[in-house]
From TrEMBL:
GO annotations of cellular component type: membrane
Location relative to the cell: Membrane
Main location class: membrane
Species per Swiss-Prot/TrEMBL record: Corallococcus terminator
InterPro entries assigned to the protein according to its UniProt record, in alphabetical order: MFS, MFS_dom, MFS_spinster-like, MFS_trans_sf
Stretches assigned to the Major facilitator superfamily (MFS) profile domain: 23-424
PANTHER family referenced in this protein's UniProt entry, alphabetically: PROTEIN SPINSTER (PTHR23505:SF79), SPINSTER (PTHR23505)
Name of this protein: MFS transporter
Parts of the chain that traverse the membrane: 21-41, 61-81, 88-108, 114-135, 147-169, 175-195, 226-249, 269-289, 301-320, 326-344, 394-416
Gene Ontology molecular function: transmembrane transporter activity
Xref: CDD domains: MFS_spinster_like (cd17328)
Keywords of the record: Membrane, Transmembrane, Transmembrane helix, Transport
């Protein structure tokens, strides 16, 4: 009896680890497909412009409409995520946006394509707000930055796959084929999500963690949470800049830098490869360093994120002002590495400074803010500046919000020290 009793906790721990690993794996793959679908349109945009005869400002609407719908639906997804089984929201959302991605390939008019992009935004809102809250309930606080970094590795890898696969399919077949291919993986993952484990809310935050909270009480507490709002402000400035950059950079490289002459049919693949390598290494490094900095002092991960953004700003400016192609790509790679450093730390800070019972809504509200004032308007705004001046000028200006975002995250790191004890209490 004595010999067997120590194995019971060990067995339970191993089972919990496997269940948590399975959920993290599925959520990460879903996030990868999410960004793959999201950025196919960026690399297919020149061909879409030719087919529909639209200008840059109209083209920017394809990014803006998606983001507007996504951000408006996210708080509702977060509200439901604090009250119903989250795996159902994840599964339903993935299936919906995957069907809409496939439908994008069937669009025969600009209006039909805009409508498909709007439906994709609804589907993504079904999972975007709840996925980080699921992960926070699967892993303890001291591991969250690293585990959330694994989840956010899907952003650069999925974006790179969107650029690479979308570019290859568009050049080899058509932009329609690129959307058809992008919709298939999500249908499989959506079905798998129904079988994910559903962790108890606040499971890793101790026995005193609030797992039920009246909505208005939680909203008042969130309104007073200065660390949450400072972090959200910095995140918003960064999202404005990189959202517009991600949408327009492939077109800039083709149109103004004429890189299709050096890399015929492969601009999307080259840019995608740089995004994948820089994003993957930056996200992993940010997760490891963020956990290490957080152990040294509260808000250490946010401090790392702020410094990373401040260093990324001059690299972004250099990327469009260096004449040498190799140096241009090098500057893009360094800027992306520094930006992706914050993927884990910034999201870990958000879930850690908010009570478990209100995390999904807080993430949904964060999504609303960063997109409403961020990449919901930046693709169209950059397109308008490009029409008035040049795409080069529009992208160069984009370095300013990144610099300001870094400064705001440093403010958030200071405020975080006060917010975390309140959240724990």
């Amino acid at each position: 009896m004595n010999a067997s009793s120590p194995t019971a906790p060990s067995s339970a721990s191993a089972t919990q680890s496997v269940r948590a690993g399975y959920a993290l794996f599925i959520l990460t793959l879903i996030n990868l497909v999410n960004y793959l679908d999201r950025y196919i349109i960026a690399v297919a945009l020149p061909e879409i412009q030719k087919d529909f005869g639209i200008n840059d400002a109209q083209s920017g609407l394809l990014g803006t409409v998606f983001i507007v719908v996504f951000m408006l639906a996210s708080p509702l997804g977060g509200f439901l995520g604090d009250r119903v089984p989250r795996r159902l929201l994840v599964a339903g959302g993935v299936l919906l946006w995957s069907l809409a991605t496939g439908a994008s390939g069937l669009a025969s008019t600009f209006t039909a394509l805009l409508l498909a992009r709007a439906v994709i935004g609804i589907g993504e809102a079904g999972y975007g707000a709840v996925a980080p809250s699921i992960i926070s309930d699967l892993y303890p606080r001291e591991q969250r930055t690293r585990m959330l970094s694994y989840f956010y590795i899907a952003i650069p890898v999925g974006s790179a796959m969107g650029y690479g696969l979308g570019g290859w399919l568009t050049q080899t077949y058509s932009w329609h084929a690129a959307f058809f291919a992008g919709g298939v993986p999500g249908l499989v993952l959506g079905a798998m999500a129904f079988f994910m484990p559903e962790p108890k809310r606040g499971a890793m935050d101790g026995p005193d963690a609030a797992v039920k909270l009246p909505f208005m009480e939680g909203l008042r507490g969130l309104g007073r949470n200065t660390a949450f709002w400072a972090t959200t402000a910095g995140y918003t400035l960064m999202t404005f800049s990189i959202g517009g950059l991600a949408f327009w950079m492939p077109t800039y490289l083709v149109r103004e830098r004429q890189l299709w002459l050096e890399y015929p049919g492969r601009v999307g693949l080259v840019f995608g490869a740089i995004t994948a390598i820089a994003g993957l290494t930056g996200t992993v490094a940010g997760g490891w360093l963020g956990d290490k900095m957080d152990r040294k002092r509260a808000g250490g991960g946010l401090w790392l994120s702020g410094i990373g953004l401040m260093l990324a700003a001059p690299c972004m400016y250099l990327a469009v002002n260096l004449q040498d192609t190799t140096l241009t790509f090098a500057a893009i790679g360094v800027a992306q590495f520094l930006i992706f450093l914050n993927s884990g730390p910034i999201n870990a800070a958000i879930v850690n400074c908010v009570p478990p019972a209100f995390r999904a809504f807080a993430m949904g509200l964060n999504v609303l803010c960063i997109h409403m004032l961020g990449d919901a308007i930046s693709p169209t705004l950059i397109g308008q500046i490009a029409d008035m001046a040049s795409l080069h000028t529009a992208i160069a200006i984009n370095a300013v919000p990144v610099l300001l975002g870094g400064m705001m995250l440093l403010v958030g790191a200071k405020l975080f020290r006060e917010a975390v004890p309140q959240a724990r209490t």
